[in-house]
Amino acid sequence: MSSPKRAAKPKAAAKTLARSRVRTSAHRAAARPAQPAVAPANGASADAKHVAAVLDRILVDGNLDAISAEALQTLIASACRLYRARREAGEEFTPVPKNSISATDVMVTASGLLKAADLAVFELGMWQNWTGR
Length: 133
Known about the structure:
By secondary structure, the chain is mostly helical. Among the domains are: about 45-100, no CATH class; about 100-133, no CATH class. The chain is built from 5 helices and no strands. It is globular and about 40 Å long. The two termini are about 45 Å apart.
């Protein structure tokens, strides 16, 4: 059985930890880079949104062969490279808006990306550990 003094120490430690979490959260928020810049509604951004709308229409219509596998691979590869470049430039945003695609969409695509790069989930975990991403 522990003494009352010993029982009080974990409470004090919990308060200290809670204070440090608040400071850490505030520090992270202050150090967080700004969200991605909003590009004009014309040019490349408009083109990208048009392509996304075309792909969504293909899904709705059930006409999955309307775009070739090669064209889809090229599109996904370019999007991955651009996302990586912007993240390395200091921007912090997710590749898709939160809750905009299903967990199945994410898992199937992530599995395909790992397979295309000849990587295993273990290697992804190790990389995340090393880089803190």
